[in-house]
Write a sequence for this structure.
């Protein structure tokens, strides 16, 4: 049964007419709705959390676009889990730790790998179908993995397949209510307890407060703060900004993973070319047609992503070029067309046939490795506030995500967060104070111009390779943008500018403090790993940055 409470309250202003007579006019209406659990975001992590939370009570899913638009939906590579008898948990754990460059928490990685296998088996029992041949699962190989352990669905459309599958399961639950085209603008926190969220409905123009004993943030990443990104336009880090301003701790947000192989065509989006393509044997070639990865790493094209992206970056500088080539010319064309049907057909629109043409590629911002710090059950330092999926920092990813661990993390920690969230106690009836928010279309142009300005700034000064000088310049420019905003922001476009500016400042400050090169964070002025900095970098509002020991 749904336990949903609705209350409509109105905010009024008094407009002077004449002779001290005032006209009372309604300027805002705000609806208050109560659910047992609130999920913010509709990617695989959010849908997984909603599905499991629905076993214990009413659930609201709030998403600022449609339910099926998320980073998860566009994931091509697959989901990593141990299924082959020659593979082992120990091997998967070791591969994850090695890719994480010393910053993974061992207990979290063990949970990911062992419970991940159980979660995958569970969704298979529920009806999820992965690609098979002759009754056996087809296992892919990707960068950083020592065994073939990547399950795929629809060849190179695993994210889409998984997201649609979980969306269907969610839609079958009558006590899960979706709220599309609704954006969360503030987490309602009082005395260290999250009581719900304030949101804005783009369709009705209403402010809506969702009250709950537990709120789960599953808003995905933030890679759209860069010029070139494989993410949908909605991935601008809303959840990170909301959590930070509410007092949640952030961890390791200086680590941004740039996917090595994204389509490079001037004026076009950075369409992702799955790492699984290199897993099937594709080569990276420089402008002279030479394979450049072989002398750099024993795994060559299948080295971890941070290694490959940096190697491509150096090739671009060396040859004064905007791209390198990915070559599949030596591979079986029929196998390629079948295995990578989405990629093959998409590239035909650009008059590129990957079975006969070299493919121009260049790195693009792809994945936020750090995020909102959580415990092993997805709970933050704020009681009643949880996070899962890409927005969270569970301790699994370290300094560089191992390929295809992300969808697995969504299943494992989405379920864990939901099950812990449903044990929360009922909250007090009194909510903390909040201001209604509105949309002024006159500010839309300012938002778009500022967003593009910041994306260019981040790409030039906080991209694959950083330096103290460039990071400091970026921080000064971001501070200047922030100072132009009003002290109290209650207009949506200006709020988005503030959120993006704050997020980028936090990334640049963290990158400035981490005076070493490790994983997805490369400093040209500190080119080696510093053993003394093998620790999580924690940031909390109104507190100093601090390093925290890794759980080994």
């Amino acid at each position: 049964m749904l336990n949903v409470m609705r209350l409509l309250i109105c905010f009024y202003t008094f407009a002077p007419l004449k002779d001290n007579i005032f006209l009372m006019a309604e300027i805002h209406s705000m609806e208050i709705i109560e659910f047992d659990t609130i999920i913010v975001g509709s990617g695989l992590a959010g849908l997984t959390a909603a599905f499991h939370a629905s076993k214990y009570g009413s659930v609201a899913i709030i998403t600022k676009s449609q339910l099926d638009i998320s980073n998860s939906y566009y994931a091509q590579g697959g989901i990593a889990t141990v299924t082959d008898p020659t593979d082992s948990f120990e091997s998967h754990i070791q591969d994850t730790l090695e890719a994480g460059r010393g910053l993974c928490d061992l207990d979290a990685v063990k949970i990911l790998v062992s419970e991940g296998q159980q979660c995958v088996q569970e969704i298979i029992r529920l009806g999820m179908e992965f690609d098979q041949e002759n009754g056996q699962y087809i296992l892919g190989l990707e960068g950083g993995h020592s065994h073939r352990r990547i399950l795929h669905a629809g060849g190179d459309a695993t994210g889409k397949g998984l997201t649609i599958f979980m969306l269907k399961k969610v839609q079958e639950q009558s006590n899960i209510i979706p709220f599309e085209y609704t954006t969360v603008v503030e987490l309602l926190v009082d005395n260290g307890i999250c009581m719900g969220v304030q949101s804005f409905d783009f369709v009705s123009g209403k402010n809506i407060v969702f009250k709950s004993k537990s709120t789960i943030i599953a808003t995905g990443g933030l890679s759209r703060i860069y010029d070139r990104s494989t993410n949908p336009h909605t991935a601008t880090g809303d959840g990170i900004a909301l959590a930070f301003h509410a007092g949640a701790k952030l961890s390791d947000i200086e680590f941004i993973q740039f996917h090595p192989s994204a389509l490079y065509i001037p004026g076009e989006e950075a369409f992702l070319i799955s790492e699984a393509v290199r897993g099937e044997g594709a080569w990276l070639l420089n402008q002279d047609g030479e394979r450049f990865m072989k002398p750099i790493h024993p795994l060559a094209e299948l080295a971890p992503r941070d290694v490959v992206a940096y190697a491509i970056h150096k090739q671009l500088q060396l040859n004064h070029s905007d791209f390198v080539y990915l070559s599949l010319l030596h591979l079986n064309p029929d196998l390629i067309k079948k295995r990578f049907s989405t990629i093959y057909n998409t590239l035909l629109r650009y008059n590129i046939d990957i079975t006969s043409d070299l493919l121009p590629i260049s790195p693009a911002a792809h994945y936020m490795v750090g995020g909102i710090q959580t415990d092993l059950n997805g709970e933050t330092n704020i009681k009643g506030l949880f996070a899962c999926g890409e927005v969270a920092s569970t301790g699994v990813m370290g300094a560089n995500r191992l390929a295809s661990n992300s969808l697995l993390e969504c299943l494992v920690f989405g379920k864990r967060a939901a099950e812990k969230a449903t044990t929360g106690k009922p909250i007090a009836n009194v909510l903390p104070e909040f201001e209604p928010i509105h949309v002024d279309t006159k500010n839309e142009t300012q938002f778009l111009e500022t967003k593009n300005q910041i994306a260019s700034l981040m790409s030039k000064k906080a991209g694959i390779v950083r330096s103290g000088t460039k990071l400091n310049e970026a921080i000064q420019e971001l501070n200047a943008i922030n100072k132009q905003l009003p002290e109290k922001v209650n207009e949506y476009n200006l709020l988005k500018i503030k959120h993006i500016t704050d997020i980028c400042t936090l990334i640049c400050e963290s990158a400035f403090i981490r005076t070493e090169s490790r994983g997805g964070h490369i400093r040209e002025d500190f080119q080696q790993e510093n053993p003394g900095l093998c620790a999580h970098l924690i940031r909390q509002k109104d507190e100093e940055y601090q390093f925290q020991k890794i759980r080994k």
User: Anything to note?
Assistant: Confidence is low (pLDDT under 50) at residues 11-27.
